[in-house]
Structures are given as C-alpha cells and as structure tokens.
Design a protein that fits this description.
265 residues; alpha+beta
C-alpha cells in the first residue's frame, strides 16, 4: 500500500503541506502484503484477507497490529506438504493466505478420513483456542499454499490486552456450530444421490470455480472422502456418482467435477 497524500482546503499550496503519514494499521497491512507477496511469488493467488481484516484482531490498536504482523510467521507449502500432523503439539494457528488445506484424520485401523477443506482466508489450527494438547487432525496442502501463523503465547497476550478478541472467537465458534448442524441435516436425507449432490454443491460453492459449463471442483475428491462427508459407504458413493452422471447433474473429466446446473450466485 502506498502512502496517501492529502492537501488541505485552507489556501495552502501543496508545497507547504506535509504528506499524511500512514497509520499503524496501514503500515501493518503494507508490510504484511509486501512480505506475503514476496514469499508467495507468482504461483500462489493471495486472498485479500489480511491479519488486520480478521474478526480475531478487531479493535486492536494500530501499534499492536503492527507488532503482531511483524511477528507473524509465514510458511510456504508445496502441494501435498503437511502444515501439521495429527498428534503434534497444538500450539500454533494459521491464516491461509493462498492455496487450500485438507484436514484429515487417521483412524485406529489405519484408514484416513477427510474432515474438511479450508480455502484462502480461512483459519486452521483452531484447537489452539481451547486447550493445550495435540492436533486431533493432520493438515495437508492441496496445492501450493502460503500461511501466516501465531503461537499460543502471542495469542494469549492478545486476548488479555483486548477482551473483545475473546468475544469474537465465541461468535465465530457459534457460526461454526450452525454450519456443522446444517451438515448433519444434510446427512439425514435418506436418498444417497441427494445427499451426495448436496455435499458436492456445498464444496463447489465454497471452493469451486465458475466456468461456462457450471461450477468446477478443480481438485480430486476420492470416494472415501465423499463417503465420510455424506456418511455413506464407498460402494454406495460409487453407485450414486454413476446415477448423478447419468442424470446429467455432474460431469467428470480430467480429474475434475463439473456441476452444470448449480446456482453460482
């Protein structure tokens, strides 16, 4: 962000006026954008969401925000690389600046389930907010990804100095509960084709890209992933996928799924 210059209306010439100095918030955003863009390079499209725009840091003083952005740790991940693993100490949270992260869990029998997919502008590692312990899931990049992270000590000091941060976390968790309740409602639909289409529609709306043919899910979802998201067996998912293709509700080509009739608004 470039420094802005404002001229007064009291008859002074521009040469007599001092340029307005950028505020702490502007300096913090400029530093964050500059460092993120430098690290991301040309291969990662960055979200416009920065630390200063997030609900977690609402009402921070400019100097506090500037210090926080300066201390933020950036991590650039290649496709398939782990941000953290299930069982690692849960002492850091991350803002996804660019890319996508898959959250998965290894069960006792060794099988892996996909729990969620987070996009640029989302958080991962929210368990740091609740208690000290271990990450209950693993986080892998689905594509080249850039994150900005903060450790537990930094965040606890922030909450102590800015109580409103804690209130904003409560609000966000309430919205998350509402989202999970909605997902449970979708899983209660008895028809497996309808359940699967609802899940695919939700993924496409949140993570997909618009095209002349409809909404496109550009990353692969295995039948195991879809089985977990719909609460159905893999064999049932295979039959349901065939039924949706036959009905023209989905198109599968080049490891991409296209939903031609999905509302894109």
């Amino acid at each position: 962000m470039k420094a802005a210059f404002g001229w007064g209306s009291l008859g002074k010439k521009p040469s007599q006026m001092r340029p307005r100095q950028p505020s702490g918030l502007e300096r913090g955003d400029a530093e964050m954008a500059c460092r993120c863009e430098e690290i991301a390079g040309k291969d990662i499209a960055l979200s416009p969401t920065c630390i200063g725009h997030l609900w977690i840091f609402k009402n921070l003083a400019p100097e506090e925000l500037q210090a926080l952005t300066h201390e933020a740790s950036r991590k650039k991940l290649a496709k398939g690389e782990a941000l953290f693993l299930q069982g690692d100490p849960c002492d850091e949270m991350f803002l996804i600046k660019g890319g996508r992260i898959k959250l998965s869990k290894i069960l006792e029998d060794g099988s892996e389930l996909t729990l969620d997919i987070r996009k640029a502008g989302d958080f991962v590692g929210e368990n740091m907010f609740s208690e000290e312990g271990e990450y209950p899931v693993s986080a892998y990049s689905l594509e080249d990804t850039l994150t900005c992270g903060f450790d537990r000590n930094q965040f606890e000091q922030l909450v102590l100095s800015q109580p409103n941060v804690g209130l904003q976390i409560i609000k966000n968790l309430s919205e998350r509960i509402a989202w999970l309740t909605s997902r449970v409602g979708s899983m209660a639909v008895t028809n497996i084709e309808d359940r699967l289409y609802r899940v695919l529609s939700s993924v496409a709306k949140e993570h997909g890209a618009k095209s002349p043919r409809g909404m496109v899910i550009q990353f692969p979802l295995t039948h195991e992933d879809l089985g977990f998201l719909t609460g159905a067996h893999r064999v049932s998912i295979t039959r349901a996928m065939k039924a949706l293709k036959s009905a023209g509700k989905i198109i599968h080509e080049d490891r991409k799924l296209i939903l031609p009739s999905l509302e894109t608004a």
